[in-house]
Amino acid sequence: MSEYTFQDFKKGQPRWCPGCGDHFFLNSLHKAMAEIGIAPSQTAVISGIGCSSRLPHYMATYGMNTIHGRAAAIATGCKVANPRLTVWQVSGDGDGLAIGGNHFIHANRRNIDLNMILLNNRIYGLTKGQYSPTSPRGFVSKSSPYGTVEDPFRPAELCFGARGHFFARAVATDAPGTIEILKAAQQHKGASVCEILQNCVIFNNGTHDSVYTKEGRARNAIYVRHGEPLVFGEHNEYGLMQEGFGLKIVEIGKAGVTMDDILVHDAHAEDNTLQLKLALMGDGDGFPIALGVIRDVEAPTYNDAVEAQIEEVKAKKPYHTFAELLETNDIWEVR
Amino acid sequence: MADSIEIKELDQVVVRFSGDSGDGMQLAGNIFSTVSATVGNSISTFPDYPADIRAPQGSLTGVSGFQVHIGANQVFTPGDQCDVLVAMNAAALKTQYRYAKPNATIIIDTDSFGPKDLEKAAFQTDDPLKEMGIDPDRVIACPLTQMVKDCLADSGMDVKSIMKCRNMFALGLVCWLFSRDLDIAFNFLREKFAKKPAIAEANIRVIQAGYDYGHNTHSSAANVYRIETRHKVPGRYMDITGNKATAYGFIAAAEKAGLKLYLGSYPITPATDVLHELSKHKSLGVTTVQCEDEIAGCASAVGASFAGALGVTSTSGPGICLKSEAMNLAVIMELPLVVLDVQRGGPATGLPTKSEQTDLLQVLFGRNGESPMPVMAAASPTDCFDAAYHACKIALEHMTPVVLLTDAFVANGSGAFRLPDLNDYPAIEPPYVPEELRGKWTPYMRAENGTRYWAVPGREGFEHILGGLEKDDKTGAISTNPENHNLMTQKRAQKIANIPVPDLEVLGDSEDAELLIVGFGGTYGHLHAAMDELRAKGRKVAMAHFRYINPLPANTAEVLSRYPKVVVAEQNMGQLAAWLRMKVDGFVPAQYNEVKGQPFVTGELIKAFEALM
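The joint structure predicted for all components is written out below.
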């Protein structure tokens, strides 16, 4: 049992718009941290710039609300320099994937033990409504009055492309689903990306409407859990099967389909092919949106490797102080 | 060719080794300077290498040089022009001859002056010496390649490996010219190639052969030189480049402060050697992260400092452009950070391997908002150690980013470094939040000198948020209150202004100089040499050199107004002069500015300064 309650992680009065997805996420984060049970003093929450990047101000932990796009880079230095800290990095879709895209992919590639939260509302809110790198093609915004002419990033694809080992997704209004993936992210050693689908009531209202309510999720989402069959629907009447190079939706009990035919989720599979297919579902393709931990594969972390290498070299090399280092050079004496 | 040998006692001598990039000129130069330093001569070296990735062999753009200045008394620069030029091929003679004094001795490998070599070096005739107007009496022309082949014929080595020893023949010849003790060179090679004793012995044989060749032929040279050491400072020494000394300074400071050293960096010429050096020393717990870009190099160092380490980032001017944002974050968050800028030629990619002082105003002012930042500049390769140490001390004790400026000249040059004893260095004591403030502490509470306290994550009861948004002076919460912003701006400025720095030292004729020479950073040696020569001619000259540029030493205005004439000499269009004019009322100096990517030439400085007097 954890010795903390969510109150131990709460601070201040959030200033987000009423109804903003950030409120929902913040509550879930407080609860998840309490359940995880790591002391506020051992926790650092590091964000960039944007509406969601205000989040560290509402945490009773150590934290930094830094500069636009650099949260992952700053969190990297923080974790490598002090691996005992639990480090959460919080960014929006603009902060994390546009200006901070380079740091996002490299934190994943290096596999630094960070919990990387991507709050995705597909819009720039703080600058008052421009399209973001996750806005769909044709999206009309203040900076795209005739619709965008570019394709969006799909965060999972970027994470997997950068050789990410953990990817999970939740809807901000779904507290149990959010808490579950946050705990799994903390459990996972290495870079853990959690995409949170959330609404911007002012500039992009309804962007995740299909899954924003419990009823919507029952119809339009599938909760994936490692080791369990991939079924969905209000009565779990549908399932996913593999067909050729793709997935197909089947109705269980119809056309001879039984539970034994349904694909069983394997979040631990090293090969991410099917995990990626799950992660990319629901983009107007008739498939449900996958929620939960989609990929969770153990791999060596950068920070552990850095520490291990230091210990290894310490054991091998005979010099450990500055004075001893000097003696390793060609020295001559002038008398 | 000359018939007689004259042994000359010299105060100083400059030797330039030049050849193809792959000819090992740097190693030959290094050994020669180490051998000289070991007998107590003062040394200063400068490598001049091409920017081309790998220019075609024997081509004009592929020539690399290494200049060594040795002296009986202290030498301050690698020297304007050389007394001995080693040219390993025709292209080297063509491009490097301009660095030779009119009466210099020239050593050439005649085996590298064939028709093809002459063509690659763009000679028009088959007599390169005549074509360049070089007096053959000054030339030691030897079939160097053939002699190296003969020397190692029974070694069992392949031709490629044998050819790699050519540099050692030239070194042996130069050692004979200057009556150097070969045993020191032999020991150097045996240690360098400890794991490949056969290579060491082959090199040693070739050095001996070069030496013997000089001795047996009296080497057709007009002069043999001796440089005796006059003023010895007893102690134990090593040869060190500026970049290595900088890395050592960071290591020493972290050890003194009891902190982990974290370097976030991205490869960039001419700063990369600092990353290389620090990456080697994991046995001291040094952590280096080669980041995805310059931005992350600096940003991750800020993160490391937040987490309680000494965060350092190393780069050159183009990297500063990218790091400015995170440097500014460290300003407003008031976290320690050391930013090393090894200046090169600009703008943009500019002259990556060449040296300038053109980033001064960039590091002083190149950030949005009011963003005060201490700036220091190292004066010489060995001074990089002290400068790096003190940059860390200021950053940690005053909770601020600090810029340390060096340049390609200082970073790649080397000097004899007297091994420091850390007990002689001042303590480094960061302002950790005192325990008695528990329960009352807010992030922007300040110690008496205006410095914010440091609460390192992991310490229970001091959890707090820092960030790039302006904060309330009292509560540490985000604030857009106009009075508060004004107050915080002033407090940040005052904190930097309060940092104590040593007084400006006046060298030379401090009492009655008719001209004060002012400079900063890596031009120290050349300005000092110019002052010495002017004084030797009977002129009254003094010199003041800035190592601390922001804040300026307290006696700056007093020193600058003490002399009838002041010249600010710098390798830019007048950036230090502009800064001093801004800071010192009514100060209007003469200026000497040069932006060639090359070190100052002492002779040219003297001419310019004489014209001012």
